[in-house]
Give the backbone structure.
Amino acid sequence: MVEISAAAAPLTPDRNGRGVFPGGIGTDGSGARIQPYHKELVMTVSRKIRESIERSSWIRKMFEEGNERKARYGAENVFDFSLGNPNLEPPPAFRQVLIKVAQDALPGCHGYMPNAGFPETRQAVADYLNTFNPPRVTADDIVMTSGAGGALNVVLKAILNPGEEVIIPSPYFVEYNNYLENHQGVPRPVPTKADFSLDCDAISDTITEKTRAVLIDSPNNPTGKVYGETELKELAGVLTHHSRRLGEPIYLVSDEPYRKIVYDGVTVPGIFNVYPESFMVTSFSKDLSLAGERIGYAAVNPDMSDREEVRGGLVLCNRILGYVNAPAIMQRVIPHLLRESVDISLYRHKRDLLCEGLAASGYDFVKPQGAFYVFPRTPLPDDAEFVAALREENILTVPGSGFAGPGHMRIAYCVPDETIEKSLPGFERVMKRYRK
Amino acid sequence: MVEISAAAAPLTPDRNGRGVFPGGIGTDGSGARIQPYHKELVMTVSRKIRESIERSSWIRKMFEEGNERKARYGAENVFDFSLGNPNLEPPPAFRQVLIKVAQDALPGCHGYMPNAGFPETRQAVADYLNTFNPPRVTADDIVMTSGAGGALNVVLKAILNPGEEVIIPSPYFVEYNNYLENHQGVPRPVPTKADFSLDCDAISDTITEKTRAVLIDSPNNPTGKVYGETELKELAGVLTHHSRRLGEPIYLVSDEPYRKIVYDGVTVPGIFNVYPESFMVTSFSKDLSLAGERIGYAAVNPDMSDREEVRGGLVLCNRILGYVNAPAIMQRVIPHLLRESVDISLYRHKRDLLCEGLAASGYDFVKPQGAFYVFPRTPLPDDAEFVAALREENILTVPGSGFAGPGHMRIAYCVPDETIEKSLPGFERVMKRYRK
């Protein structure tokens, strides 16, 4: 812990005559503060967290520059496409159910329940999953969690030994890196094809005896890609082959918070149909616009090897990670809303508005099949430079490098239609300047 | 990952004639399942999680035996003192506030907010903390969390480097061990004195350059002890001395979910008065009986060295651990209830009922000053044997060994008065049998 020991240094009196350590300690024993530590010399936060803070300082800087622009030009004149925060309110049915649940003071309904969640909630989720999976999912296969972020951490903690690797098709939501590091796992990004579909040969080439899982996200953040049944079956074949070769299962973890946000008749295949050693994780953050309520779940494929131990592992991890259980009130709300969603046609309209505008200005992109992101190529390799140029037009986007997809940028179109419409001339001007 | 490699073993046909690996893999490539893995040979959950599941199997066994007894004798004839789950409902004011908040559909109120929480909520918490601390706590010092379990994980992740040690006065809530292991920290239990007060000399002797923090819990689970200002100041003196010696702050983390559950005029000193390098973590699980809602907070002492970096670390950890933020709806509820609690006199009555009964039967215990636990000595060293004897009387308690306090047992008296009254003859019979 001690990077630079000051133990041998002499005490020097401070201006009140008390002994003070050089770069040293904060109280005189009575609890009164003397002086702060020197950041360079001592640990306050851990080394890893200090590095993370420094690494993410560019995000904060970007965020602050955006805020400065909003202050200077007025929020309505800054076009903020940087955050994946749904701009639609939860559907009307949500409010009715919430008020009813709030009024319904069942004994103990705000207290502890089994760490996996209320049995009725888990049964309702299982019934819903059985509408697009082999109808064998039971309440015991479901662990209610603090959103998809909670579900992913629970699954990763349950399966990862230190140093084991998780393959992630890139570009991807880089928060996955943090989730892996929480449990001493190692991300192994494998680039997708030009249309953002899975490159199963490249995945196969990356599998080693350290590979514990493949983590996919469909519909994808940041690309909007939906993986079809054919490519998922090809992936399952690769994983089955290597699992046999290595004598252990390689898991498939499918993160699906955008499952219901799809367009043009596209559907997301049920992963449990495709590969037995699979988990599904999801939340109600996007399809019901409940991101702040932290409600989601992890589901274990009923065909998984030794599913009982794995389920026990998930329940244990939900507890010991400090989540304990998913928030009780939302567990009572969501069984009534499993087949509901916000009006997806509103997102489709935003997608079309943006994509038509970008195409007219010469942007090169794959039209998203789902989620509310588009991930165009930047016309120069330095995506940060192009994003900075857009910012000069008061258009806020995120460099693709932040998603392990350099040479691109992410535009989150979960914003008012007017924001899209008013931003298009700026998009066009910047493209004109850089286009060869 | 591979503990026993089967890669060189020959394929043997299964009864369908397909090649199957010995102890091997689950699909035939089309996704159909062949046979489960052999648990002894391959990893499903990680090694650590498998060990944890096995370690905690005695708890499950105890729990199952309790359930069997309830099924056999009727739940009303089994006296379950094993769980710290408040039996009182939230105060009436909670229901009124919850309904109002549920009806009040502010735009975005269920969506993402800053990872630290709604600014108004954090300000209300700061104002409350300033009623028993130096009045310098600001909204920026507060991070709203998923209960105290979430708060502890956030603080520990923010400060711990791998292998660093946290001193914990024992007996203690052993879930702390899991929380430390999540972040590669190492627990260093230090026994308290006979009356469960802090042994500051023993703590001082245990501090090394690996010591990162001391973690206290007052009122204490499992003992009901409240640390007084004198012993806390002595502890602060020890930590100040060693922090100076080592040139780095040793943090004090104070876990206070039972702060409002105190008896006989006892009060819990504000830790920010006592030691600058301190965190307070707490929840509304016990004093408002909201354990299932996962709402609490971590507070940084406004006098802490480099508090800005530490606060940034907490916010980052709240995000990257997958909590993201505390549940939004409860963040809007609790500002109205910071000065509320369940009726503490009901818990005091339960304490007195139980303590008088135990004393009359010759049990040896320190009368708890707070929380809803009593931690008597068992009249024989093998606490598990004594707990098993009580179970024969349909009285369910937990061996002190489960709290790093062997030779004791924990009785959680957050149960109906009738449970206490009806259990006392059984407590007496078992004591008579074992008393020398």
Observations:
- The radius of gyration of chain B is 25 Å.
- Chain B touches chain A through 118 residues (CB under 8 Å).
